[in-house]
Amino acid sequence: MASEGGEAVRNKQVIFRDYVSGFPKESAMEVRESTMKLRLPEGSNGLLVKNLYLSCDPYMRSRMTKLDVPSYVDSFKPGSPVNGYGVARVLESGHPNFKKGDLLWGFTGWEEYSLITAPETCFKIEHTDVPLSYYTGLLGMPGMTAYAGFFEVCSPKKGETVFISAASGAVGQLVGQFAKLFGCYVVGSAGSKEKVDLLKNKFGFDDAFNYKEELDLDAALKRYFPKGIDIYFENVGGKMLDAVLLNMKIHGQIAVCGMISQYNLEQPEGVHNLMNLILKRVRMEGFLVFDYYHLYPKFLEMVLPQIKEGKIVYVEDIAKGLEDAPAALIGLFSSHNVGKQVVVVSQE
Q1: Residues 167 and 142 sit within 8 Å (Cβ to Cβ)
Q2: In what order do the strands lie in the sheet with 283-286?
Q3: Which of 120, 163, 311, 326 is disulfide-compatible with 26, CB 3.0–4.6 A?
Q4: 63: which DSSP letter?
Q5: Are 164 and 176 in contact, with CB atoms under 8 Å apart?
Q6: Terminal-residue alpha carbon distance, the chain
Q7: CB-based contacts of 48: which residues, under 8 Å, 6+ apart?
Q8: How many Cα atoms within 13 Å fall on the side-chain side of residue 83?
Q9: Can you spell out the DSSP letters for 92-151?
Q10: Taking a C-beta distance cutoff of 8 angstroms, is the pair 31, 105 a contact?
């Protein structure tokens, strides 16, 4: 194979141009071609991989800004390829956990070929009887995020009421299905009629609403949760969080996964109803999926049979080719995507 000879190949890349403030534009990135030798450097314990699928995720917005505080992931480097979660095939391995031909998911570059220098952060794909693209979503970081946030952070009980914002996204659609299978009453919010229909008719939510059509979010939540909310899975922040705080039950749980309404604001919005955390003894906890990756085998044990039995469905929004990757990523922040946003680099 090419990797043995170390031949030079063209390597199309999505290059990050410069840091942004406010709403990001596609022009923050550009597609370029370089050449790359398909050979691991001498003595490297890394992996040379061919990228197949790339994941577009909301957290990537913060990486487009120069971060002055410690973060779980670094800012993108101007002049270097964008990087994030993806699915790849190993062309050459210097690491004992991987061999040539293996499939993996983990952090990789937005390019056709990548050198992965931290293979210990990657997961070998053992189950290939499901679509490989699922490892950017349902069986990858977003799936683990939904699982950890709902089961580990929220500690749900059967019959509880659950509200999920940004519910048709990569994480939200799974939280809702996990909650339904667990025996909870589930309502989600989304930003279009199409997405609301998906929540009710495909993902099996008990109900859903379009937040853009609600002039009073507090009144909307009281309509769907007349007795209050036990669990809120937070993906949005801002006005939605403020309204939820007024509607939580005593001893309710809020898992703070993301705040997409705040990512593009130069001045984040304040939250006004935090006193309810005290009055209602609500526990509100932020979490990062990295702290829960040790549970990945347990997660697969639960979710793989549910996929095969048709109990869990997953919707993807597919962009084809690295040329469309910048638009796919920026589209997340104006709700262009329906379901999990994936970029196909190569279909074997």
Answers
A1: no
A2: 207-210, 185-190, 161-164, 229-234, 248-256, 283-286
A3: 326
A4: G
A5: yes
A6: 15
A7: 3, 38, 39, 40, 90, 91, 92, 93, 113, 114, 115, 116
A8: 20
A9: EE-STT--TT-EEEEEEESBSEEEES-GGG-EE----SS-GGGGGTTTSHHHHHHHIIII
A10: no
Token pair for 268: 């984040």
18 neighbors 76 (Cβ within 8 angstroms): no
Residue 160 DSSP SS3: coil
Query: What tokens appear for 141 in the block?
Result: 């970081």
Q: In the numeric block, which tokens belong to residue 76?
A: 């993108």
What are the beta bridge partners of residue 162?
186, 231
Closest-CA residue to 296 (of 102, 125, 103, 144) = 144
| Contacts (Cβ under 8 Å, ≥6 apart) of 136 | 53, 54, 55, 85, 86, 87, 105, 142, 340, 342
Per-residue pLDDT tens, the chain, 348 aa: give them: 333 457 889 999 999 999 988 888 999 999 999 999 889 988 889 999 999 999 999 889 888 888 766 556 788 999 999 999 999 999 999 999 999 999 999 999 999 999 999 899 899 999 999 999 999 999 999 999 999 999 999 999 999 999 999 999 889 999 999 999 999 999 999 999 999 999 999 999 999 999 999 999 999 999 999 999 999 999 888 899 999 999 999 999 999 998 777 766 677 788 899 999 999 999 999 999 989 999 999 999 999 999 999 999 998 999 999 999 999 999 988 877 778 899 999 987
Question: Given the structure tokens 């913060």, which residue do they identify?
Answer: 62
- Give this prediction's pTM: 0.89
As a whole number of angstroms, the distance between CA 195 and CA 7 comes to 46
Amino acid identity of 244?
V
Which tokens hold the place of 339? 């379901």
